UniProtKB/TrEMBL annotation, chain A:
Similarity remark: Belongs to the class-V pyridoxal-phosphate-dependent aminotransferase family. Csd subfamily.
Record-level GO BP terms: cysteine metabolic process
Catalytic activity, as annotated: (sulfur carrier)-H + L-cysteine = (sulfur carrier)-SH + L-alanine
EC number, UniProt record: 2.8.1.7
The entry's keywords: Lyase, Pyridoxal phosphate, Signal, Transferase
Name the record gives this protein: cysteine desulfurase
Cofactor(s) recorded in Swiss-Prot or TrEMBL: pyridoxal 5'-phosphate
EC top class, as a word: transferase
PROSITE patterns: AA_TRANSFER_CLASS_5
Domain of life: Eukaryota
Residue ranges annotated for the Aminotransferase class V domain, each copy included: 62-436
Automatic annotation (TrEMBL), chain B:
Chief location category: mitochondrion
Top-level lineage group: Eukaryota
Record-level Gene Ontology MF annotations: 2 iron, 2 sulfur cluster binding; iron ion binding
Protein name (Swiss-Prot/TrEMBL): Iron-sulfur cluster assembly protein
Similarity annotation: Belongs to the NifU family.
Known role: Scaffold protein for the de novo synthesis of iron-sulfur (Fe-S) clusters within mitochondria, which is required for maturation of both mitochondrial and cytoplasmic [2Fe-2S] and [4Fe-4S] proteins.
UniProt GO cellular component terms: mitochondrial matrix
Keyword S-adenosyl-L-methionine included in the entry's annotation: no
Gene3D superfamilies, A to Z: 3.90.1010.10
Length: 465, 167
């Protein structure tokens, strides 16, 4: 019995000893690399969720799904908590101190966003629940008021459904013509020449994404804007900046677009917030969209008048905490510096693309020049279902996405039903990518060792796409 | 090969760097039950969907783009004598529908409606993220039964309940 007791004590001591050693090892490894620590290594400690484990792993989750939503630094979480603990009050027209403070914080967030995108004026920022709502706003307000039967909308086949479906519905409603720009095999991005060929005086909307959430291509916005201004003088240009704004400097004055939609939750902000940037003159000519309180000027039994932009498009109590949280996220990002983020993510983009090429059987989507890619990569395997890939990665504590990534037309264009996608943000490291590659290789080996019953050709069995 | 699937790393409780590396190296992978159905799926194929005794369930999961077709052949007593499936999807989806075709055989069309996705999932030891695949299989069974019932109502008379009372 005494021997057993001693054995147990020595085992737990040994365990404690090894645990301490392991912590020391990790800390010393971190200390050793501080001198040349990457942006990912320096920032990941700011994100509490990146310390948690999943699927009985011993090391923290490796989050490679920032294209779907980003993680939030403690600073942003503190601001959200602090707002509700100390400031929460309804905004605008409040008669007391709390309301004044809340209003001030909310409008300060608007200023931060305006400054972040280099807007001409703060009145050009309309807070929405996200980019999807922002694009719907343009389609339903600007679109309904300005487009007539026979007018044309130019989109690309690579658009996210948020920048696709609102235009489809508008086209159905108003009997408009939709034109789709296809991919250019040479660049892996959209075919800018084809786009130019579609432009004429009946073109009223040209809507496209800055960065593709599947292809990782970075579209030449200024070049496209210049073509549109030359050949389609009546067209408003709508830019989906969801995958660009969080990762690089986006300057609306420099780009020259008319509208820009972005998601707050993809740039370290909370969920439920995004914004539409629009040229002030355009916004002030647009009719209200959602209506109710806040956006009105005068209401009588018989009539109603409306605020100028941006208030006109912000009906009801706003997502106050979330907007303030987005402001805090912008502060956080700007402390790092968007240029630094962009440069670091170029490194990640190249590394990710090059490393994925070492996994047997994978086909990678998008431009083949890694220098022209954003830090994400969608891919599929010749025989393994993307959902099996993502499940096995999940079992290794690695989070990726599988499916059509809200881009069904793009997948149809590429001739595949779905794909898997790893998307990075500045808190990822090359080690994260190494882990992804190792896990993918093991998964490929696992399935290679299986004898899968061959698919019988069956002409009437067509997969849903 | 299969032993790798079920091996639990002895060193999992050791938090040393070597232990961590070892924990990463050992694959958990899919449980051997899933692998078995993935390598040797049961009853792959098609029945004639125009046959009055055949019920066809075609279900899809638009979120992952998967499709399952599950067919049953029902005799005059309302008992399923044959079942075939074709699934376009991941290993868990294939395994779930393969299990479904095995489980429906020999049962009555009403009995199979009580097959639950949780039974399929626990039999296969599906990973939590794959539970929706077993749900799709449950839906496929129900859709096949519904299709057969509708076709029967239109022509062939089979009254399962009366048969049971008589017996």
């Amino acid at each position: 019995m005494q021997c057993l007791f001693i054995w147990i004590v020595s085992c737990s001591a040994a365990h404690a000893f090894t645990v301490r050693n392991e912590i020391r090892f990790r800390n010393s490894a971190r200390a050793a690399s501080t001198a040349t620590a990457s942006l990912g290594e320096r920032t990941r400690g700011d994100f509490p969720i990146l310390q948690r484990t999943v699927t009985d792993q011993e090391t923290p989750v490796i989050y490679l799904d920032s294209g779907a939503t980003s993680q939030k630094p403690q600073e942003v979480l503190d601001v959200l908590q602090s707002y509700y603990e100390r400031t929460n009050s309804n905004v605008h027209r409040g008669a007391h101190t709390l309301s004044r403070e809340a209003t001030s914080a909310y409008e300060a967030a608007r200023d931060k966003v305006a400054h972040f995108v280099h807007a001409f004026s703060r009145n050009e920022i309309v807070f929405t629940s996200g980019a999807t709502e922002a694009i719907n706003l343009v389609a339903q307000s600007y679109g309904r008021a300005n487009l007539v039967a026979g007018d044309e909308i130019v989109l690309t086949v690579a658009e996210h459904h948020a920048n696709f479906v609102p235009w489809q519905l508008l086209a159905q409603e108003k009997n408009l013509k939709l034109k789709f720009v296809h991919l250019d095999p040479a660049t892996g991005g959209i075919d800018v020449n084809e786009l130019e060929g579609y432009l004429n005086e009946k073109t009223k909307i040209v809507a496209f994404q800055h960065v593709s959430n599947v292809l990782a291509c970075i579209n030449p916005v200024k070049e496209i804007v210049q073509k549109v201004r030359s050949h389609a003088p009546n067209a408003a240009i709508v830019l989906d900046a969801c995958q660009s704004l969080p990762h690089m400097v986006v300057d609306v004055q420099d780009l020259g677009v008319d509208f820009l939609a972005a998601s707050g939750h993809k740039m370290c902000g909370p969920t439920g917030i995004g914004f539409l940037w629009g040229k002030e003159q355009l916004l002030n000519e647009m009719p209200p969209w959602k209506s109710g309180g806040e956006m009105i000027d005068q209401v009588t039994l018989e009539s109603v008048t409306f605020q100028a932009a941006p208030g006109r498009f912000e009906a009801g109590t706003p997502a106050i905490a979330q907007a303030i949280g987005l402001g805090a996220a912008i502060d956080y990002l700007q402390k790092i510096g968007m240029k630094n983020i962009e440069l670091y993510e170029h490194e990640l983009a190249e590394y990710l693309y090059e490393q994925l090429q070492t996994v047997p059987g994978l086909t990678l989507l998008g431009p083949t020049d890694p220098k022209k890619r954003a830090a994400l990569c969608a891919f599929y395997h010749e025989s393994i279902h993307p959902s099996d890939l993502s499940t096995f990665l999940d079992m290794d504590g690695i989070a990726v996405r599988a499916g059509h990534h809200c881009c069904q037309p793009l997948h149809a264009e590429l001739g595949i039903p779905h794909s898997a996608r790893a998307s990075c943000y500045f808190y990822n490291t090359k080690e994260d990518i190494d882990a992804l590659i190792a896990s993918l290789k093991r998964t490929v080996d696992f399935f290679a060792g299986l004898n899968n019953a061959a698919d019988e050709a069956d002409d009437d069995f067509v997969p849903f796409i | 090969m299969l032993s790798i699937l079920t091996t639990r790393v002895a060193s999992r409780n050791v938090a040393s760097p070597v232990g961590m590396a070892a924990a990463r190296l050992i694959r958990r992978g899919y449980h051997e039950n899933i692998v078995e159905h993935y390598e040797n799926p049961r009853n792959v194929g098609s029945l004639d969907k125009n046959d009055k005794s055949v019920g066809t369930g075609l279900v899809g999961a638009p979120a992952c783009g998967d499709v399952m077709k599950l067919q049953i052949k029902v005799d005059e007593n309302g008992i399923i004598t044959e079942s075939k499936f074709k699934t376009f999807g991941c290993g868990s989806a294939i395994a779930s529908s393969s299990v479904a075709t095995e489980w429906v055989k020999g049962k009555s069309v009403d009995e199979v409606l009580s097959i639950k996705n949780s039974d399929i999932a626990s039999h296969l030891k599906l990973p939590p993220v794959k539970l929706h695949c077993s749900m799709l299989a449950e839906d496929a069974i129900k859709a096949a039964v519904k299709d057969w019932k509708e076709k029967s109502a239109a022509g062939v008379k089979v009254d399962v309940k009366q048969e049971k009372v008589a017996a």
